[in-house]
Amino acid sequence: MTEKNGRRWNHNIHYHPRILRAVPGGAQRALDVGCGEGMLARALRRTVPHVTAIDLDAPSIDQGRRYPDEVDYVLGDFLNHPFEPASFDVVASVATLHHMDAATGLARMRDLLRPGGVLAVVGLARDTLPRDLPYVLSAIAVGAAHRAVKGEWQHPSPVVWPPPVTYPEMRALAAEILPGSRYRRHILWRYSIIWRKPRD
Questions:
Q1: pLDDT of 27-40, one tens digit each?
Q2: 3-state secondary structure of 75
Q3: What is the CATH number of the domain that holds 110?
Q4: 57: which residues sit within 8 A by CB, 6+ positions away?
Q5: What residue numbers bound the domain in which 177 lies?
Q6: Rounded CA gap, 172 and 40, in Å?
Q7: Domains in the chain: how many in total?
Q8: Residue 140 falls inside a structural domain
Q9: What are the Methyltransferase type domain coordinates in residue numbering (predicted)?
Q10: pLDDT tens for each residue of 93-126
């Protein structure tokens, strides 16, 4: 399935509102890391005047550029693209960190934020069975209910499975690299990290 009633839904899109609620008032520049075809970037552009969206997947970037949305789409690797340090008010990322070394990715996102800026991440981590079996069973039931009502849009970007980092490992990385961040595990096989960079 793709869309129902002209609206897209999947596990990643389900948590876009968590990213959008974290955008600080007055934000002028946002970066969407691993933007895919740009759905989140377009949503950010509705409240942030300057949005840059970067991805390594050329077909996804080509799709994003077809929208007349004034988003700056960049084909490249955000780990080494020559962004100016501390140049974004918002750095957002959905389902991207498991495509790279998570510690390196989080540190790079942190360094691209201006003081007072917000990092908002939704990611995938690996379940550990049997400990995580209650989470897995709940996710299966809740996901099936959502799909029955909303359908499921299949994004065009490459998939990495299983994620290399477990949920506890991701929580520990966030605490180490982003002190004071808010980590939360969500029902639909996702976690979120929200962090505001301290003002020096």
A1: 999 999 999 999 99
A2: strand
A3: 3.40.50.150
A4: 36, 156, 157, 158
A5: 3-126+156-196
A6: 27
A7: 1
A8: no
A9: 31-120
A10: 999 999 999 999 999 999 999 999 999 999 999 9
